[in-house]
Design brief:
Number of strands: 0
Number of helices: 2
Radius of gyration: 25 Å
Helix content: 55-70%
Structural class: mainly alpha
Order of helices and strands: HH
Strand content: under 5%
Largest sheet: none
């Protein structure tokens, strides 16, 4: 009988640990989706993720080295809007 009690405890603990891990993963995904507008997506197990030296050392200090055309156009529109607002305030 003692063996069955230990097996039941082990099974219950395993189920509770897995439920805890699942809830942690779900919370991490929800938080990531909420604040994902502020950074680029993280790619895991893709071809790019295995390339450790993707950016060249000469581009290490360049903030626009890895920016896409779409991101650059959004940034340019945002900067133009800020410049227009600044000229309105200055006048």
């Amino acid at each position: 009988m003692i063996g069955m009690d230990q097996a039941a405890i082990w099974l219950g603990a395993s189920i509770l640990i897995m439920l805890g891990l699942i809830s942690i993963v779900v919370c991490a995904v929800v938080i990531n989706n909420i604040v994902s507008n502020y950074w680029k997506p993280i790619t895991i197990f893709t071809r790019e993720s295995f390339n450790l030296f993707a950016s060249h050392p000469q581009n290490a200090n360049d903030p626009f080295a890895n920016i896409t055309e779409e991101e650059y156009s959004k940034l340019a529109r945002h900067l133009e809007k800020l410049r227009a607002d600044a000229t309105k305030v200055a006048k």
